[in-house]
Amino acid sequence: MDDALTEPEIVALGADHMQAAAKIRREALWQRLPWLPDLHTPEEEEQYWRMHLLPNCTILGAAIGTRLVGVIAYGDDWIEQLYVLPDFQAMGIGSLLLGCAKEEMDEIRLWTFQRNIGARAFYERHGFAAEEETDGLDNEEKEPDVLYYWRRLPELTLNLQPSST
User: Fold this and answer.
1) How far is Cα 49 from Cα 65, in angstroms, rounded to an integer?
2) Chain segment 77-99, per-residue pLDDT in tens
3) Per-residue model confidence (pLDDT) at position 7
4) Domain assignment present for 20
5) Which residues pair with residue 64 across a beta bridge?
6) Structural domains in the chain (count)
7) How many CA atoms lie within 13 A of 57 on its CB side?
8) Name one Pfam family in it (predicted).
9) Is 76 left (phi over 0), alpha (psi -120 to 50) or beta?
10) Is 139 among the domain residues?
11) How far apart are CA 29 and CA 36, in angstroms?
């Protein structure tokens, strides 16, 4: 069956998935942003997922068949990681993963690089607004970045009771 025609399944990821999650991040990042410096080995990135993200975040994956094609790590009103393999982008997988985070949090912040035009357009389509831009001196890549913010709109309630006049 063609992977492109299969609906992704959202699954909770555990320790045994951290190598695959780190690999998705690495592949998506370096294919889409080849100008970024490669600062960590694959093993260091896996350790970051295993030792920092796994204990502190909800980590979900998007699987098509047995293949993990996207991943999100979020918690405490932040999206820490959201990546989809390049061959599976523009298929709604990122939107599906982002929707899971939006269901659980009333407000969300996240960082992305200013030059990451695709990610910026994606987040803006999903209701995020740029809140702050930096020169990048505080991130390890030394790349100008932008802080995005989203807040759930309050539920509108309609008073359907007839007025007594």
Assistant:
1) 23
2) 999 999 999 999 999 999 999 99
3) 87
4) yes
5) 67
6) 1
7) 25
8) Acetyltransf_1
9) left
10) yes
11) 8
The pTM is what? Answer: 0.88
Alpha helices in the chain (DSSP H): 18-32, 42-48, 54-56, 93-104, 117-125
Instruction: Let me know if residue 110 belongs to a domain.
Output: yes
- Burial grade of 126 (CB within 10 A; 0-12, 13-18, 19 or more): middle
Closest CA to 86 of 63, 61, 69: 69
* CATH number where 81 lies: 3.40.630.30
Task: Give the model confidence (pLDDT) of 131-159 as tens digits.
Answer: 999 999 999 999 999 999 999 988 766 66
pLDDT reported for residue 162: 64
pLDDT digits (tens, 9 = 90+) for 24-68: 999 999 999 999 999 999 999 999 999 999 999 999 999 999 999
Entry field: residues in the chain = 165
Domain hosting residue 84, numbered range: 3-151
Dist. CA 51–CA 56, nearest whole Å: 9
Q: For residue 149, what are its two tokens?
A: 């913010």
